[in-house]
Amino acid sequence: MQAEKSRILLVVFVVVAYLVTYVAAGIAGILLVIPGLYVAYRLSLTTAAIMIEEEGPLAGLKRSWALAGGNVWTIFGVNLAFLAVGLVIFVVALLVGGGIPSGANAATGLQTPIGYGSAITGVLTGPIQVACNVFMFDSFRGQ
Question: Which sequence ranges are marked TM in the entry (predicted)?
């Protein structure tokens, strides 16, 4: 029972850390795109820090910031690869799902295919991206 409570607490910590991450990245993103991406990449290992090291949200954020410090380009490269793969999957899903509408109602006709394409992309790349973040966290932790 105690282990189950501690896991639930860790999930709550992850939610709190995500909120802090998105607010920090959003504020930096408002200032400029590059600082927003930098902050997002530095905090991208927070979930792994919280779950693997069983830390609280602030400790997880600090750990992610510290570990990602010298590895921002690696994190950027991994995210760029997922962006490229996700874009290909999205376009294929869009084309298979009915193509790209044209004409006066093209914008309205794009809503459903875009929704399907986004969902398919997320389902196919999301779990792999989480696994990559865990792998990067573990690798950076060993440096």
Answer: 7-34, 72-96
